[in-house]
Amino acid sequence: MSKSSSLNTVFADLPVTIFEAMSQAARDNNAINLGQGFPDDPGPEDIRRAAADASLNGYNQYPSMMGIPELRQAIATHYGHWHGLKLDPMSEVMVTSGGTEALTSAILAVVQPGDEVVCFQPVYDSYLPIIRQAGGIPRLVRLEPPHWRLNEDMLKSVFNSKTKAVLFNNPLNPSAVVYPREDLELLARYCQEFDVIAITDEVWEHVTFDEHKHIPLITIPGMRERTIKVGSAGKIFSLTGWKIGFVCAAPPLLRVAAKVHQFLTFTTAPNLQAAVAYGLGKPDEYFLSMRKDLTRSRDRLTMGLESLGFPVLKSQGTYFLTVDLSPLGLNESDTEFCWRIVKDYKVAAIPVSAFYEQDPVTSVVRFCFAKKDQTLDTALERLSDAVRGRKR
């Protein structure tokens, strides 16, 4: 047996992620990338200048493993203001190198071999490998279009005495749902009944539209001491490359997550932390204006796609909207559709079936609208015949 054949199969057997595959296809085909979720502008100038100033004039050696005090205080103040969530910045807040590292720290802190972890499909691609690396057993719940909502039957089918944790993404990527209080209360009831810890991926918490308001699960009665909340400055400020994540939890949970974080990345660039602390303190109007700008982009792409005959599902949050191809009578799956349009029409999108491990929904495609008007308009021009040219 060669050494390579005995490598860690949790990771060795993973395929290239659909995000990297489609982004590479976009590069290979000189296509507009509406697949991967990043804006095509540089981000807020004042926050970038704050990072530059902190780099030139601030401290550039190892900062505190838990995050610089200014940022931990800013996180606590920010969540207190927006959600009424009272946090002790020194014992209940930690800064990580991005939301994915925050989630990894939380999962490895909670899950032991044999523990079952409830996850909802469509599921973000980092969750399952880390659960399995910890020895956990994912229990998958299938959400369906057009509403992607939770219900009693689906929770009853997966929660049991072996359930250790639930991993819940809200607002949900890729389906762009912002979950209402009744769904959160239902999930909270099961967590309390089965003594389950909730790890909540809430990186899109500020990116909500219309009258939809994000409600952190940790604020639901009975969940304060059993929830690990994850946030992301990259999503809040459209600075995805900065990789600044937040972990908020009661001290007994945060202490163990911090020990995992210590041996993953240990700490995070201090100049970026200082700039994020500045950004979190910006007035409400900044965050409301950001939502208005993204709403306008969402509506521009929605109306454009609908005018071309695409059945668009309403986006309540995130950078994404989805299209359900099933009413169109196309003789292809979502994956086949995405490969066709990137090659033939020079536009990249993501098949939502890639977010399922079992029994996938195969008719829904995700587009990113966090782009400049010209980018969206050019993509729409290229897609003008994508539906008519493929009907049975």
Automatic annotation (TrEMBL):
Its cofactor is pyridoxal 5'-phosphate. Keywords: Aminotransferase, Pyridoxal phosphate, Transferase. The keyword Transferase applies. It comes from the Bacteria. GO terms for cellular component: cytoplasm. Residues 31-383 form the Aminotransferase class I/classII large domain. One of its GO terms (molecular function) is pyridoxal phosphate binding. Belongs to the class-I pyridoxal-phosphate-dependent aminotransferase family. PANTHER family: FI04487P. This is Aminotransferase. It comes from Bradyrhizobium betae.
